[in-house]
Structures are given as structure tokens and as C-alpha cells.
Amino acid sequence: MKYISTRKQEETNIKTAILKGLADDGGLFMPEYIPQLDAGFFENLPNLSLQEIGFRVAKEFLGESIFDDNLKEIIDEVLNFEIPAVKITENIYSLELFHGPTMAFKDVGARFMARMMAYFSEGKPMKVVVATSGDTGSAVASGFFNVAGIEVYILYPKGKVSPLQEKQLTTWGRNIKALEIDGTFDDCQALAKQILSDEELNQKFTLTSANSINIARLIPQSFYYFWAFAQLEKLGKPIVFSVPSGNFGNLTAGLFAKKMGLPIHHFIASTNANDVVPKFLETGNYESKPSKQTISNAMDVGNPSNFERMKSLFNDDVSEFKKEIESYSFSDEATKETMIKVKNDFGYTLDPHGAVAYLGLEKYSEKSNADSVGVLLETAHPAKFVEVVEDVLKTKIEIPEKLEAFNKKEKQSVEFSAEFELVKQFLMAEN
Ligand SMILES: *Cc1c(COP(=O)(O)O)cnc(C)c1O
């Protein structure tokens, strides 16, 4: 399988696509075609484990670039936690993606990517640069922590991540460094892009990106769409996914799963006030905007990086987008009301991101009257946003031990204004 940049000027293999992250022409790598799984796989799906599904799906994208035994080992390590579909109402299920080490869904993609990079880099020194709006950085850090030869630089927006998220970014030490940027997530993302394309830095170091622009983040995020079907197909109804979206990596992975043959009925791209994609589907015009701060901060993205991949999947045709995806934007007010309602009526605690996804399912079912099952991707444990959740629900929530362990450690970060030259100077002085 070849991997081709969305801007068409570069073609390479999976190893290079993963090690580089971003193509030289500024585009994002895509497989040259989306592989198909055979009918036997789908018939047998309810009998497969999450790890077996992961192996089969990953194998299609990776081919002979990695030995089966190595791939199996990586998959088993990455997917060493449960991803249950938990019933909230008769027709709404929460696919809990947050049972990994940092308690956000990004554990799946980031840990797979980290292990693939470590495998392909064969111990050669490398610097990994990652911009984060909250959860990516810690999941990437957890994947790379103590991997020989790899140094990780996390760029995060000062004061714009939750206190617990900040602890999860800044308390690793060793090969993980946190750069605290006085700016927005978009500034961090722009800085990361500049670093990765800077000639001098590239001469001195082998640099790569760990953002959702890396194809190795997307591939494993398609696993759990299959896994949701394995759990819920028996209900005998069409299945709709609501994906709380920021950079649209999670949703793009769902599109991969559907193209591989998974009969997903429809996608709902649920966003907070950062509504570039819902506006695009409404008007046909894509206009990036500065990001707005909300209570679902991991989705505060004004220029979603995976839009370019979605465009290439839909041949740049907005009517093709609309066949597969509805997209709605919701306010913080509506998000809070939903958290309260779902807690009171059904006893289920949603985090703010999951609540945005819940709203998407409600709105879709009002419009479509279809007798479908709605699956919301619950992307973070509510305790990751303890301040917001306790404030909204007016009750204490329990902090899992895994998270409490971060809270007890000391923050270590280096502060910068959002100026490339300063960050560059710092990096040039690194070994
Ligand atoms: C990153 C993140 C999202 C958004 O996912 P994308 O793939 O960027 O669309 C949603 N919820 C949480 C908790 C996240 O960390």
C-alpha cells in the first residue's frame, strides 16, 4: 500500500509516512485506497475480541511493513483496557473510550503511534513535537515515556487546559518536556508546524509530529467503530455514531471504517461553539476562524487539521459530505443542561465532550424519526474535567487513582510567548 499526500506532491510507504507525520508539500498522508474487509470478517465480527479486530484492521493498512508477531504484540499492549458500550437509554449507548492510562480516547491513537514510531525508527534518535489542546499531549507522553532515543516536546496553551490535564502534561520528566505557550491551541499548532518545517532544525535533528495529522493516530481509531458493532449489532437496528469533534481525527477514522465495509448508518459531527464544519455543511464554504474557549476545551479548534483528509475522501464535494455526515454546533449552556438531565434522568455522568455528542444524537433523532441506535463516543472520563463537572452537577465526583497519581506530582514546564524564534532558540540548544 502506498501513502499519498492530500496535496498530491508526495508518495511514500507507511514507514516513512509515520516517521514524517506531515508530507513535505504540507499535506497529510492518506492510504492510496481504503482497503476492504471480506464478508467472512463481518459475519464473524460479534465473536472477535477487540484485539483481534485491531490486528485485522491494522494489518490491512500496514501490510508487510511489520511482522505479524510484532504487530500483534503492539496491538495487545495498546488495547490493554476495556472499551465497553454502556447503555444510557433504550436507544442511546456511550462507547467509553476513556479506560486507558490517561483516561481519554487519545490513548488509543497516541500509544499505537508511539509504538509504531519506536518500531520503525529502530532506536535512532528522534524528536517528537506535539501541540495539544489538553488530552493529546499526555497520551503521547504516556506512549513515549522512557522510549530510548526519543525526546518529546509538548506545546500547550497556558491557562487553557484543565488543572488536571496540565498535571498530566507537565509531570513526566525524563524524555518528556512541556512547553507552556502564552497563546491559544491554534498558536501551538502553528508553532508545531513551523518547527517541523524549519530547515535549520531539520538539519540538526530528526523531527516528527505526533498530532492527529499522523496517519498512525487514525488507523487505530477506526478499531473501536468495529468493536461497537461487535457489541451492538445484536440489537438489529441501524447504528448512528455521534462524534464530539475538534480536529476531526476521530470522525475521519470512522469514515475509514465505513469505507472498509462497516455498515454505519450515519455520522453526526457534534461540535461546541467552534463551528467551522457545521457552517461548511450549511453553506458549502470552509472558513477557518480563531478558536473560541469552551467547557469542552479539547474541541476548541478553529481550523481542524483533518478537514483536508475528509475533503480528499469526499473528492472535495460538499454533497458527498452531506450524504454521510450531519454536523451541529452546541453552546456551553446546552452542554451543561444535558449533563444535568442525563445525570438526573438516567444516572449517567457525561463529561462535557460526551455531552456535546449526546446533544448531537438528540437533535438527529428529532430530525430523522429513524428507529436507530445512537452511539456517542465518550472521549474522556468526567474526572478529567472535575471542576466543570462538579460545578454543573453540584456534587462531588470520585477521582480515579490513575488520575490522582498525576495530581500528586510537581509541575515542570518552560514558558514561552507564541513566538517561533524563541521556541526555535530553545530547541537549537537541545541535544
Ligand atoms: C481530542 C478530543 C476530542 C476531539 O477529537 P478530534 O479527533 O480532534 O476531533 C474530543 N474529546 C476529547 C476529550 C478529546 O481529547
Describe this structure in words.
The longest helix has 17 residues, at about 350-370. Strand 6, helix 6 (about 135-145) and strand 7 (about 150-155) form a beta-alpha-beta unit. Helices cover about 45% and strands about 15% of the residues. It contains 20 helices and 14 strands. Helix 3 crosses helix 4 and helix 5 (about 105-120) packs across helix 10. It has a domain at about 80-105 and about 220-395: Rossmann fold, CATH 3.40.50. It has a six-stranded mixed sheet, sandwiched between helices. A five-stranded parallel sheet has the order 9-6-7-8-14, sandwiched between helices. It has a three-stranded antiparallel sheet with strand order 2-1-3. By secondary structure, the protein is α/β, with parallel strands linked by helices. It is globular and about 60 Å long. The two termini are about 35 Å apart. The model has no long low-confidence stretch (mean pLDDT about 95). Pyridoxal-5'-phosphate binds next to helix 12.
